[in-house]
């Protein structure tokens, strides 16, 4: 497939180049009919340095601080609002070039595509009438919108380099001065818009700061009032708070001492009670005297009764003292809780006071900072710049930028060559005609045996009968090559092949009363010339083969069996009645054999007219046993019999005639017969059990065939 595409390109390259050259010349000439336009450009550099003193720089929209914002600035340069401002400033809505009142020819592909789209939209929308009915805009608005759209098409904004912050504004118009003026106006308007955006943002920030400063002032006044009110409502003075703190500490100490005394007294009474329960009265008395609950003089020599009395008194005294201590602890605990509540109330009051003082401090700091920023922003309004600069103003161009004659011509040439090559390859991929040996043999499964070239001057059929059987030398050469082909089988050993055996069986199965000798008993070879479609060169090729056989001293007979496209009708003396009579006496047709200018070559034209009746009579005779008898009789008179059969896809008798032949020659017209037709023809032959003995390519243009890369056609 790739090889076929390469050869297709080689065949078509000269035509493609010639067409490309003519297209380039035509495009070059057409550029003289296009409008002459001039292009001027201005360059704008956007500030990309990041401000480190953000305290002095308003963070507002429109101020480029880094390369990441360059794309946003580019969109601003391309915005429609910017274009509208320039249109209003330069009054372009009244300029015929931009208002759409002046026509012209352009060769710009984008402009041509846009014009085609607009025309298609207008057509689908119903034309000018529909537009006029549905458009309520004034004429001034229509002109202004047209001017904006045309200026958008005429200007182009591109980044200079890949990493720079410089943008080039290019404008193309019919006037060189107008182009420069518009480019400069776009650049200036861009700077004006940037400055305006910054001033608006600065004004918004100043308004916000003013409002915020007022709010902070009100907050300070309220906090000061709250602090003063809270200071008046203080629970205790510092001296009172210090007294409360000291009293609380004293009460906690007294409570601790009382608690220790109570615990000690409880331990002593518990010990005395335990000794008394054990019966150690003397030891209990001694212990009471030892811890001071009983005087030592009393604890001397004492009786048991006196000891019990003394211990009871000690127990009662201890219980009274414990009750006193518990009462004292309760009083002290209440005092401590009171002092704590008083201290907590004072601490809460102090924390609220501290919070208010901190809020006042923070608010005063923010207030002073905002007042300072408001003052700085008021000063910035006097020296605020756009953050971009015009580094190169547009100047009137010297040479026109459009039309680009050489570039247009070269572009057209390359386009024609490109699409020509693509078209050639696509056509080659989808073509279905047989042209090379590989295509012939892969389609039919039969070896390509020979080729018959296209006649250079007169057709070989007419030339043969007009010039006393003389053929073109080249045609005669290829005819001898066809005769010498082993696939034709005329000059090889006479061993029966499968088709011959089938034909012999058909001959031997003739009706009773006829001679039952097979065709193989004679030396005659019957060839059937078949083709898929009419005008395949079959008749001329069979005539050529017959003439060559006759010159090789083979007695040759051509039987015209083509009921559809017979070329021998003019030489026929048969009538339908005579042909019907031959059904009973086939040898009667021997009287209608005619000679030819070539000695040894005879012709039997069986087609006796052009009407449907004559074709039907001939078809019936060809499929009858009488025709087999005729062939048997003729096989004793001739060495070679050539059956010129009708196209396989048009007549059913063609497959039958191929079945009764010794050899089937399948003729296909070079670069004309399609694959599907050939496959159908092969299928028709296979349906009757016949395979072509030889495949012949006819009407081959030898000069063109060389361009297909097939050495067999070279």
UniProtKB/TrEMBL annotation:
Segments forming a coiled coil: 213-278, 308-342
GO cellular component labels: plasma membrane
Q: Which Gene3D superfamilies match?
A: P-loop containing nucleotide triphosphate hydrolases
Cell membrane in keyword set: yes
According to the record, the segments passing through the membrane are 408-426
Membrane topology value: Multi-pass membrane protein
Q: Which GO terms describe its molecular function?
A: protein tyrosine kinase activity
InterPro entries named among the record's database cross-references: Bact_polysacc_biosynth/exp (IPR050445), LPS_length_determ_N (IPR003856), P-loop_NTPase (IPR027417)
Could you tell me the superkingdom of the organism this chain comes from? Bacteria
Q: Which Pfam families match?
A: Wzz (PF02706)
Keywords (alphabetical) are:
Cell membrane, Coiled coil, Membrane, Transmembrane, Transmembrane helix
Span of domain Polysaccharide chain length determinant N-terminal: 8-89
Q: Where in the cell is it found?
A: Cell membrane
Q: Does the keyword Transmembrane apply?
A: yes
Can you say what this protein is called? Polysaccharide chain length determinant N-terminal domain-containing protein
What is the scientific name of the source organism? Ruegeria profundi
Print the organism lineage: Bacteria, Pseudomonadati, Pseudomonadota, Alphaproteobacteria, Rhodobacterales
């Amino acid at each position: 497939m790739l090889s076929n595409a390469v050869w297709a390109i080689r065949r078509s390259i000269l035509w493609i180049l010639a067409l490309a050259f003519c297209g380039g010349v035509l495009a070059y000439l057409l550029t003289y009919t296009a409008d002459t336009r001039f292009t001027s450009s201005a360059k704008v550099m956007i500030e990309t340095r990041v401000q480190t003193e953000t305290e002095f720089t308003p963070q507002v929209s429109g101020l480029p601080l880094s390369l990441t914002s360059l794309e946003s600035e580019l969109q601003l340069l391309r915005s429609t609002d910017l274009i509208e401002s320039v249109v209003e400033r330069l009054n372009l809505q009244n300029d015929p070039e931009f208002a759409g009142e002046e026509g012209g020819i352009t060769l710009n592909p984008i402009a041509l595509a846009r014009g085609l789209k607009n025309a298609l939209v207008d057509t689908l929308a119903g034309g000018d009438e529909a537009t006029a009915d549905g458009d309520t805009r004034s004429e001034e608005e229509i002109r202004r919108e047209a001017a904006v759209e045309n200026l958008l098409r005429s200007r182009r904004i591109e980044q200079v380099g890949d990493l720079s912050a410089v943008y080039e504004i290019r404008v193309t118009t019919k006037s060189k001065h107008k182009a420069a003026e518009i480019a400069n106006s776009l650049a200036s308007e861009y700077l004006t818009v940037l400055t305006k955006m910054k001033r608006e943002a600065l004004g918004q920030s100043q308004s916000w700061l003013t409002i915020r400063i007022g709010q902070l002032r009100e907050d300070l006044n309220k906090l000061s009032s709250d602090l003063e009110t809270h200071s008046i409502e203080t629970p205790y003075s510092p001296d009172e708070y210090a007294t409360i703190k000291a009293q609380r500490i004293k009460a906690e100490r007294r409570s601790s001492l009382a608690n220790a005394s109570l615990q000690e007294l409880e331990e002593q009474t518990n010990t005395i009670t335990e000794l008394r329960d054990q019966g150690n009265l003397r030891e209990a008395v001694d212990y009471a005297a030892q811890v001071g609950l009983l005087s030592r003089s009393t604890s001397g020599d004492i009786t048991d009764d006196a000891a019990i009395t003394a211990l009871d008194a000690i127990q009662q005294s201890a219980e009274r003292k414990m009750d006193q201590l518990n009462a004292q602890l309760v009083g002290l605990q209440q005092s401590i809780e009171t002092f704590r509540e008083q201290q907590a109330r004072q601490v809460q009051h102090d924390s609220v006071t501290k919070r208010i003082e901190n809020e006042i401090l923070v608010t005063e700091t923010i207030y002073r900072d905002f007042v300072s920023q408001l003052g700085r922003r008021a000063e910035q309004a006097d020296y605020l710049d756009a953050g971009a600069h015009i580094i190169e103003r547009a100047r009137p161009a010297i040479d026109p930028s459009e039309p680009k004659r050489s570039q247009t011509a070269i572009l057209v040439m390359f386009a024609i060559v490109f699409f020509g090559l693509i078209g050639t390859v696509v056509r080659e991929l989808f073509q279905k005609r047989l042209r090379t040996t590989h295509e012939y043999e892969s389609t039919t499964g039969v070896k390509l045996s020979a080729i018959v070239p296209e006649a250079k001057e007169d057709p070989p059929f007419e030339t043969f009968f007009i010039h006393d059987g003389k053929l073109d030398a080249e045609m005669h050469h290829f005819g001898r090559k066809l005769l010498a082909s082993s696939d034709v089988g005329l000059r090889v050993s006479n061993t029966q092949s499968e088709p011959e055996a089938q034909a012999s069986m058909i001959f031997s199965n003739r009706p009773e009363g006829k001679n039952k000798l097979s065709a193989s008993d004679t030396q005659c070879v019957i060839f059937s010339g078949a083709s898929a479609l009419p005008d395949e060169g079959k008749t001329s090729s069979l005539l050529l083969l017959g003439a060559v056989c006759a010159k090789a001293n083979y007695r040759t007979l051509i039987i015209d069996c083509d009921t559809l496209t017979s070329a021998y009708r003019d030489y026929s003396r048969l009538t339908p009645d005579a042909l019907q009579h031959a059904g009973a006496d086939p040898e009667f047709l021997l009287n209608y054999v005619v000679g030819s200018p070539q000695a040894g070559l005879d012709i039997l034209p069986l087609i006796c007219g052009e009407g449907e009746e004559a074709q039907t009579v001939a078809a019936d005779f060809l499929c009858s046993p009488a025709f087999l008898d005729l062939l048997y009789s003729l096989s004793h008179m001739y060495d070679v019999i050539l059956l010129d059969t009708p196209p396989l896809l048009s007549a059913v008798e063609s497959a039958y005639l191929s079945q009764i032949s010794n050899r089937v020659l399948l003729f296909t017209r070079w670069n004309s017969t399609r694959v599907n037709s050939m496959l159908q023809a092969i299928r028709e032959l296979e349906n009757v059990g016949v395979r072509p003995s030889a495949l012949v390519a006819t009407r081959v243009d030898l000069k063109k065939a060389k361009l297909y890369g097939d050495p067999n056609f070279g």
